[in-house]
Amino acid sequence: MLELLLTTYVFCYHFQLDDPLIQLVEDYKWINFFDFDWRLGIDGLSIGPILLTGFITTLATLAAWPVTRDSRLFHFLMLAMYSGQIGSFSSQDLLLFFIMWELELIPVYLLLSMWGGKKRLYSATKFILYTAGGSVFLLLGVLGIGLYGSNEPIFNFETSANQSYPVALEIIFYIGFFVAFAVKSPIIPLHTWLPDTHGEAHYSTCMLLAGILLKMGAYGLVRINMELLPHAHSIFSPWLVIVGTMQIIYAASTSSGQRNLKKRIAYSSVSHMGFIIIGIGSITDTGLNGAILQIISHGFLGAALFFLAGTSYDRIRLVYLDEMGGIAIPMPKIFTMFSIFSMASLALPGMSGFVSELIVFFWNNYQPKISFNAKNFNYFCNGNWNDINSYLFIIYVTPDLFVLISIFLPVIGIGIYPDFVLSLSVDKVEAILSNFFYR
After folding, report:
1. How far apart are alpha carbons 280 and 187 in whole angstroms?
2. Band of pLDDT at residue 363, cut at 50, 70 and 90
């Protein structure tokens, strides 16, 4: 909770929305022998996922209150996973990015193997084999870029972004990074670990997996494949659009045939990730902004749906859909929230899923008008609440409803006023796309 408040404070008072460059830089020498730096920073591409990570992790920690067996270890692993995710989103060094990428794998494996379902060891082993296998390609790509054209390794993102490579070598680097990020996103056919993992994990762990972990793969595609390897990305971008379209159709069709509620939501998540792949492959400011908006939107929706599936199981001990008929009678509030978030996942107008998917699909014609007024936001950040005190009231809600309402508010907010989220990334997106037209 304190970390979320600190992150929000830094965003309100120290982050400049109209600056596409790296901000809040932290650069220290770490290992002199390898010329390895501890280099962190935030820009318009990473600020959204960082805020999302802090928000979802806080709610997932609150949602883990029913965990009583080794609860201290459980929460420690969740915070360790949080550290790795924040480090991945803020790293400005390729080798540090790889270390943070690997750091969050161990907590996930332990959370799965110790607090999962009956097949927890199978799902945990499958998860670690897939992700560790993808990490081999990531390490090879990092070392290849860092060692190319220099006697000393250079892992700085900014330096690597200005480096030119032979086309054949750049394609090899691109394929290596793509395989690593395709496993984490996931992209078909490297998605089969996801349904098993979600089907066995505790629902607070599922909130982090669906809300944050999958978004790390999409973030890597933009941060490394697009920003560092633009020529290869322009070659593969039409195929990304095709793969994204196939993924939407295939995963949605497979989802409808699942009896297990958590596996159905998992396949739905794979389908929604297809929209992000299409936006990344579009190489347009509208498409890429839509992909980033979909990253944030699905982070909220995926976390909410898995929380609902888990808290429903805690009450009725049922997870198969053909056995769950009539749950509106014993759980009217949960049923209502389940209906709302299901409609949001179906892209109901007025919800965050609608506007993000609409922008991705209409990237040829749609031109968003970014009109976010920072003064209005700072009005609230500065604590000027006197004018609205009369509208504030306190009601008693259960912990479950508190988590759901906390997610529901940004889903509605983004659906009604998406320009706030778009304003975070619009300048950075223009800077990334300039590599494709002026490099």
Report:
1. 13
2. low
Q: Where does the pLDDT of residue 33 fall: very low under 50, low under 70, confident under 90, or very high at 90 and above?
A: low
Cα–Cα distance for residue pair 328/59, rounded to 1 Å: 24
Which residue reads 């929706």 in tokens?
A: 301
Q: Which residues have a Cβ under 8 Å from the Cβ of 206 and sit 6 or more positions away? A: 198, 262, 306, 307, 309, 310
Instruction: Give the pLDDT score at 297.
Output: 92
Reported as a single tens digit per residue, the pLDDT across 313-324 is: 888 887 888 888
Q: Where are the beta strands (DSSP E) in 5-55?
A: 23-31, 36-42
Rounded to an integer, what distance in angstroms lies between the CA atom of residue 161 and that of residue 141? 14
Residues ≥6 apart with Cβ < 8 Å to 70? 114
**What is the H or E stretch that residue 14 is in?**
helix 2-14
% helix / strand / coil in the chain, to the nearest 5?
Answer: 70, 5, 25
Instruction: Determine the residue type at 99.
Output: I
User: In the chain, how many H helices and how many E strands?
Assistant: 19, 2
